[in-house]
């Protein structure tokens, strides 16, 4: 009897393990799904309360400051022992990754990464006022967090470490950044935030913390090693140099063999005008333009447009085997958009309805008669000259189910937009209107 009991226990545990294996997904999200996720993240960021947004931005400034501290320490003295320029920059870049890892994994609001909110703005889900509000509050919070971190580091007198070599390195970094030309700083800012936003973009493919960290390392290491300019990092690097210049005692200057006069160009005015302003401009161009809008154009722009006469209602076919979902969609679409809504419970029934009278747009679930019934219907529609021109918005929760591993790459599903359940009514209406002429 005890043996039978042991067998039952083992059977239950094996079943639990099998179920867990089905539910845990390790494959990265494909690019089309990444774009949808980034759009939704942008909406959530834009809708944060101002005080929460500012507090998270202060944290991000401190996290980036910690990455800058790490990089300053690690690169101190390497040149004096004959280490090459490239290796020094590589090591500095690797350890600077700490900053963005903190932002992404711990949770914080970083101005440069938030340039990707432009994807939600381009889709009409975020207003211009919301976009600028987020950028303004987050930029201010990043500045406060960075300056506060620099002030703490001044009190630690870390600049005296290694007989003042660490402070000399911090001054050298700050002074070099002030010496950039205006348009040079813009160009370096463009390249920097293209890589930073690429790192954030890659993180949207991740399913685990490990995925996120690995996605961050190479782009961030590359921007630091290449000498590109990051506005928020410079909110720590340059003020740190300025604080050392104004506060260090004679012992420090004697130790490094220099005086404050040797850094006469290092001023607060030069920090703002010659570095922070052009670098910020470049960061916006590189992040919002070269990454955010490019990926919006590739994956989120409406590629099929429905033209309907003004006096006619847009005809929408809802294909879902859940009566509650159909009723929800019918209520939202008729009351909120004035659309003419019909429904089908499976792919076969939907195809017959469409052949009898093609709708203007289809809302399609994935899991119905079979786990991929909706995918099969979408593919079948591409074989028909008329039905292939109908925009398809796929609405499903399959990515959170045990069938997620069966879902093909979004690039292999002939759909035009994806909305994950549960569905936000406003998001649904805005997504539909993107396809209406």
Please give the order of strands in the largest beta sheet. Answer: 2-1-3-4-5
- CATH-derived topology of the largest domain: Glycerol uptake facilitator protein
Based on the coordinates given, report the CATH architecture of the largest domain.
Answer: Up-down Bundle
Percent helix, as a range, is 55-70%
What is the CATH superfamily classification of the largest domain?
A: Glycerol uptake facilitator protein
In total, how many domains does the architecture comprise?
A: 2
- Helix count? 17
- CATH top level of the largest domain? Mainly Alpha
Structural class: mainly alpha
Unreliable runs, pLDDT <50, ≥5 residues? 1-24
Q: What is the ordering of alpha helices and beta strands?
A: HHHHHHHHHHHHHEHEHEHEEH
Radius of gyration: 27 Å
Largest sheet: 5 strands, parallel
What average pLDDT do the residues reach?
91
Count of DSSP E strands?
A: 5
Shape: elongated
Strand content: 5-15%
How far the N terminus sits from the C terminus, by CA atoms, comes to 72 Å
